[in-house]
Amino acid sequence: AKKLPGTASLHYDASMAANGTEHAHLGAELREALENDQLFLLYQPIVSLDDGRIMGSEALIRWAHPTRGTCGPDSFIPVAERTGLIVPLGQWVMRTAFAQLASWISEHGDEAPGVMNVNVSARDLREPEFVDGMAALLKEFGLAPDRIVVEVTETMALEPGQSIINLHGLRDLGVRVSLDDFGTGHSTLTLLHECPIDEIKLDRSFTQAQVDGRPPVSAAVIHLAQVLGLHPVAEGVETAEQAEQLLALGYIAAQGYYFAPPMPADRFGELLRESGSL
Ligand code: C2E
Ligand code: CA
Ligand code: CA
Ligand code: CA
């Protein structure tokens, strides 16, 4: 596996985020950003731990702010959620990621690009139209439903009402559901057993804790995944040692700076063209 140069992502200052006036301002700016194509997606490869083959990618949003440079999602997703802009933003993410996957498939063949993981917010998942919207987009771009993996957090998966209805709707559609940041929330065995979840993503705090001599949560999680038939993905792999340990434990797929950082679509396309592996 080889490393690629990191993709810089400048963040807003934390003190700004605490300021209400700045927030209102940011909300207005974000509305403009949506209208004026200032948002873009980076794609981080998800690779097979045993041979480095690309199994898919996770779409991660960025904002090319006209004066502040590139901003990461932690600086504006919370604002988008508070202002309701998260709904059109979520639709934009989905449409852009689906279009990208369809384009890679037509350029590099059906197999090469693998699956597309997209992050959705709690608000997105509560929309009664969420599943229908997903079905319409799959149809529009001619994508098989099992090429899409919707990443949700444990809190979202535990929410009764429309959210859980939508998770079942995704399952019925054939779209896969991934439990993000696994281990940091409130997962119970009941949740894992009863929710329509296909994949768990081991949070990077556990991926990285392995070399610190802390208890191997990653080992417990892989057993859980195997018993419950969930596809295990390890996030935040930064070193060869971490990758080796995860493979030895039975992890199949991983993501992290050790393999590749989130990258622009054309760079990801080059990887697919070159060899399809890292
Ligand atoms: P996440 O879903 O847990 O995404 C993984 C984050 O870890 C990404 O940060 C990624 O750039 C970063 N990362 C990847 N490899 C490594 C590594 O080896 N080490 C370390 N330390 N970090 C790594 P990013 O792109 O800043 O995204 C932050 C969070 O924003 C995401 O966390 C996700 O919850 C949210 N997000 C990103 N894109 C979207 C989106 O399109 N919609 C929504 N609703 N949320 C999004
Ligand atoms: Ca994610
Ligand atoms: Ca995560
Ligand atoms: Ca997260």
From TrEMBL:
<protein>
    <submittedName>
        <fullName>Diguanylate cyclase (GGDEF)-like protein</fullName>
    </submittedName>
</protein>
<feature type="domain" description="EAL">
    <location>
        <begin position="23"/>
        <end position="276"/>
    </location>
</feature>
